[in-house]
Specification:
Elements (H helix, E strand, L loop, with lengths): L2 H5 L14 H10 L6 H12 L3 E4 L6 H11 L10 E4 L3 H14 L8 E4 L5 H9 L4 E4 L1 H9 L10 E4 L2 H6 L3 H9 L6 E6 L4 H10 L4 E4 L2 H4 L4 E7 L5 H11 L5 E4 L3 H13 L4 E4 L5 H12 L5 E4 L1 H5 L8 E4 L6 H8 L9 E7 L4 H11 L4 E2 L5 H22 L8 H7 L4 H13 L2 E2 L23 H8 L24 E2 L15 H6 L6 E6 L9 H12 L9 E3 L4 E6 H11 L3 E2 L2 E2 L2 E3 L2
Parallel strand pairs: 1-6, 1-7, 2-4, 2-5, 3-4, 5-6, 8-13, 8-14, 9-11, 9-12, 10-11, 12-13
Antiparallel strand pairs: 15-16, 17-19, 17-22, 18-19, 20-21
Helix pairs in contact: 3-4, 4-5, 7-9, 16-17, 21-23, 23-24
This protein binds adenosine-5'-diphosphate and magnesium ion (MG).
The site of adenosine-5'-diphosphate has 18 residues, from helix 4.
Length: 600
């Protein structure tokens, strides 16, 4: 839906060229639709002619209006009967379509549109159907339900739309769809929209569509030129780190992160949440209610990052995103096109970042040849970059707060701190550090990309244990309890984590080193005592590497690590404590024998 793609359609430059009624044109202007998208320019005239139509175009190309406008143009409001039935795969999409129809129908008097889906009160639906509805937008299951109860009558249906047909089939609605189609009046018009054309879809069209017109938005129009596509060559274990740097750097406030498996969705969400990013996941295992919750939080901006699999993302409506991140590279080129199509819609520009591990490089190449677009290679933002942008934002937010006023109550805080012997510079710097939430961690700038291969380093993706020990690819600072760590001590180091973002999704935590040391371990964690300390030159990553490797537990489940001169405390999950004791006691870390026990 970029101006560029639209301009390739010369026949219909404007909606007025399509011969639409004044009311629809007025609504389109109000909605800010200036030009028809390709699927609209070709689809609207075909549907208005009355032919059966198969429309194929990627997600986000305006298919709703492509069938919605002709449907609205053909409703006879002097009758009370259902005249159009639109089937959608999910409640989300049914609601979205009915809302878009509502906006398009704003200046047409008396058109009644109703969304009918499972999970909503059937009695309420029956009552409003009784009052008379012209257009029903529903999910197949619930529509079947109403058909069986005879609360929905289709004798007067003139138009039948299957929206996102491939998705409906994927969701197992085939039988429902077929019985609904079989129940429609013979002489109705049937319109099918789909992002892909699979065999089952073709067989449905053969059985139920009459001499259909096929409209396909051609391949090279698929890739939205308004989308800035950049790839980053990243080690697999550094992907979340790089992702958060990109989010910070480009100030991405609404973002869809794609990955190939459900398990990955959960992992990434957990990792992002630990770093203080407001993120949630969506995949096929969620119940409808959970999906709705996740979606409404995302739409309200409470959650800023949505992590999804390709299939799950197809069933949701999100637009106006700042960006899309391909956490991994999709296995199918067409998926890539669908994914990035979620950003940069309707004339806005968007970012599509792909994190490419070495063994994914070839897939990216095939995407490039499929889309005929060269994906530019980006530079991973450095620690300095991130601190820089956060500083700038910090200065901005402070100025804004001062301008807003209402701060008298806090004006004596500076005096109080000065009394404790700190300089104004120190106080402000400490505040900035706390609010900006830029922490140091084990990911040095030189340790993110796979390109920079150094001396003794092995290929990533190999032996996990080796990786963790040699390149520090595991996390050792959890939940902001990082005050007195070795790794945090060296000024000028480039180790950091952008783990905590002020006020976003986690409460401020205790950061003072001393009080932290005496604090009890977090719930569910057991604190262990190790007989090695700073004098033995051990680093947190040595400990994580050894424990994760020897006890065979994921490094990321290991909690706070406090290294003292002669000993160390480390928190591990309660359920793993025994295993760790057994595996580590009498074992060695960095060649030094270690005694380990539950901390008193
Ligand atoms: P699809 O069903 O193909 O995935 P939608 O119909 O949901 O796409 O449209 C995607 C977004 O683009 C919606 O927010 C819609 O309001 C907007 N849109 C559709 N057509 C146009 C247009 N011609 N100009 C501007 N925005 C449009
Ligand atoms: Mg759609």
């Amino acid at each position: 839906m970029t101006t560029e793609t639209i301009e390739t359609i010369e026949d219909f430059e404007t909606f007025a060229d399509l011969g639409l009624s004044e009311n629809i044109l007025k609504a389109l202007t109000e909605m800010g639709f200036t030009k028809p998208s390709p699927i609209q320019a070709q689809g609207i005239p075909a549907v208005m002619q009355g032919s059966d139509v198969i429309g194929q175009a990627q997600t986000g190309t305006g298919k709703t209006a492509a069938f919605g406008i002709p449907v609205l143009e053909r409703i006879d409001t002097s009758s009370n009967a259902v005249q159009a039935l639109i089937l959608c795969p999910t409640r989300e999409l049914a609601v979205q379509v009915s809302e878009e129809l509502g906006r398009l129908a704003k200046f047409q008097r008396g058109i009644r549109i109703e969304a009918i889906y499972g999970g909503d009160s059937i009695d309420r639906q029956i009552r409003s159907l009784k009052r008379g509805v012209h257009i029903v937008v529903g999910t197949p299951g619930r529509v079947m339900d109403h058909m069986q109860r005879r609360t929905l009558k289709f004798d007067e249906v003139r138009m039948m739309v299957l929206d996102e047909a491939d998705e409906m089939l994927d969701m197992g609605f085939r039988e429902d769809i077929e019985s609904i189609l079989a129940d429609m009046p013979e002489d109705r018009q049937t319109i099918l929209f789909s992002a892909t054309m699979s065999k089952p879809i073709m067989s449905i069209t053969k059985r139920f569509l009459n001499d259909p017109v096929l409209i396909k938005v051609v391949r090279n129009e698929l890739t939205n030129v308004n989308i800035e596509q950049v790839c980053f060559e990243v080690k697999p274990q550094a992907k979340v780190e790089v992702m958060t740097r990109l989010i910070d750097m480009y100030h991405l406030k609404s973002l869809l992160v794609f990955c190939n498996t459900k398990r990955k969705v959960d992992e990434i969400v957990e990792d992002l949440q630990l770093r203080g990013y407001a993120s949630e996941g969506i995949h096929g295992d969620l119940r409808q209610q959970q999906r709705s919750n996740v979606m409404s939080k995302f739409k309200a901006g409470v959650t800023t990052i949505l992590v999804a699999t390709d299939v799950a993302a197809r069933g949701i409506d999100v637009s106006g995103l700042d960006g899309v991140i391909n956490y991994d590279i999709p296995l199918d080129e067409e998926y890539y096109v669908h994914r990035i199509g979620r950003t940069g819609r309707a004339g806005m520009s968007g970012k599509a970042f792909s994190l490419v591990a070495r063994d994914e490089k070839f897939r990216l190449k095939s995407i490039e040849s499929y889309t005929k677009v060269k994906i530019e290679k980006g530079v991973i933002p450095s620690y300095e970059d991130i601190v820089g942008v956060r500083k700038a934002r910090f200065v901005e937010s402070i100025s804004a707060a001062i301008q807003e006023g209402d701060i008298d109550l806090y004006e004596d805080v500076l005096e109080m701190l000065r009394h404790s012997g700190y300089s104004t510079e120190q106080i402000v710097a400490a505040l900035a550090k706390q609010i900006m939430g830029v922490q140091k961690n084990e990911y040095s700038d030189g340790n993110l990309a796979w390109e920079e291969r150094r001396g003794g380093e092995r290929r990533e993706g190999g032996n996990d244990r080796f990786e963790r020990r040699s390149s520090g690819g595991s996390r050792f600072e959890r939940g902001g309890r990082d005050g007195g760590r070795d790794g945090d001590r060296r000024g000028g180091s480039d180790r950091f984590a952008s783990r905590e973002r002020s006020g976003e999704s986690r409460a401020p935590r205790e950061r003072d080193g001393e009080s932290k040391r005496t604090a009890a371990p977090e719930a569910g964690m057991t604190r262990l005592f190790l007989s090695l300390g700073r004098k033995d030159h051990i680093m947190p990553r040595d400990i994580v590497g050894a424990i994760a490797g020897e006890a065979n537990i994921p490094g990321k489940t290991i909690g706070a690590i406090d290294i003292y001169d002669k000993f160390t405390f480390v928190d591990v999950p309660e359920r793993d404590a025994r295993t760790v004791l057994r595996a580590m006691d009498g074992n060695t870390i960095k060649g030094k024998a270690v005694q380990i026990d539950i901390a008193k």
